[in-house]
Amino acid sequence: MNYINIDTPINELEKILRQKSWLGNERIKSIEIPGAGNMNVVLRICTDTRSFILKQSRPYVQKYKDLEAPLDRIDTEYQFYKTVRDIDAYLPKILGYDKHDHLIQMEDLGDTEDLTILYKTRTIEENQLEKLVHILGVIHQSNPGKDYPRNIGLRKLNHQHIFVLPYLEDNGFDLDIIQPGLGKLAEPIIQDQDLKTQISIIGAQYLSYGENLLHGDYYPGSWMNSGGDIYVLDAEFSFVGFKEFDIGVMVAHIIMATMNEHFLEKIIDYYNHECHEKLVRQVAGIEIMRRIIGLAQLPLERTLDEKGTLLQIAKRMVIG
Length: 320
Prior knowledge:
The chain is of the alpha+beta class. It folds into 2 domains: 10-107, Phosphorylase Kinase, domain 1; 113-319, Aminoglycoside phosphotransferase (APH), C-terminal lobe (Aminoglycoside 3'-phosphotransferase, Chain: A, domain 2, Alpha-Beta Complex). It is 44% helix and 14% strand.
């Protein structure tokens, strides 16, 4: 397998790409890191005629190299792009895929920023929200086929960080390093057995096979803004499951950004397809809690009181 990274010599990378017929009569001028990647190695390749993106998986999480992760997650992402045909305008074009090297070559969207800026602005434009919900609906209506990857290895990893580890009393997360007092704030959540039972039930459903194609990680870090256009990236967590998971994750992040829980009803109205609101609400609550008291922290600058409010909203969403 040919591993690539920011330090790969240009002549070596040119040789690798020419062997795949991914490079014509052009020379690579520079190799850049286009943004902070969590799961995979992501590089921008600039030649004397164009630029493109290379994305490669590793047997671990790129941001947390001590966390093992399945190599074939990049295949899942490739299958996602192949399957979702009705929103091509909102997805990067796939230029090449090498299963052996776990490598995708895709369109460079240029100067973009992900929508994690929402956590700072504390608002989202109505047209952005409507477009993102529309995209999600189209994904859920796509036909993945019976051979679509189950992605069970990555789902098991995700399951631990969403439904299990944040709620263990001795999980190794020192929340007070993140924000003094956060550990104390987490105690009522961690000690609530009824709450944890409900979380376990939803977690079991997450691991089961469902009916709808999911993006699997539908949050602002996967949404890109390029010149006013919205693009959806990073579908390595995709699987066939229950659509309320994607909707609930989206709801959770809009609520955390805006501190306004009424966005749940607005997003469901925009969704315009049948879904179980209670299940959406429960998933949203779980996602809020795990993002505040779990390992996968967000660039969410909130006071301790604000985080306490979010946790109270989240708990109410899960158990009523």
